[in-house]
Write a structure and sequence with these properties.
The chain is mainly β. It has one domain: Transthyretin/hydroxyisourate hydrolase domain (Immunoglobulin-like, Sandwich). The longest helix is centred in the middle third of the chain and has 7 residues. The radius of gyration is 13 Å and the shape is globular. It catalyses: 5-hydroxyisourate + H2O = 5-hydroxy-2-oxo-4-ureido-2,5-dihydro-1H-imidazole-5-carboxylate + H(+).
Amino acid sequence: MSTLSTHVLDTSVGRPAQGIEVTLETVAGEGIGSGVTDADGRVGSIGPSRLSPGDYRLRFASGAYFEASGVDGFYPEVVIVFTVSDGEEHYHVPVLLNPYGYSTYRGS
């Protein structure tokens, strides 16, 4: 199991956001993992089984998701930069998404 997972909920329709491409990168832009949200809006494992301490970036293809739904969105992608302080811990990065905004937090 990876030390990183995510969950995306589309708050504009009150459902999980299925089919969003998610990419994990170093802050230098090197891709180190990817996945697509499932029917529950989750990617249960992204990237290597252990992330070294440092900063990372998650990219969510929100524009393509809304376009596929016939919705005009404002953000073509959502990019979240976060810090791994302990490579032995699990990190969960949920996103609450709608066509004109988003929020995130460190989950469990």
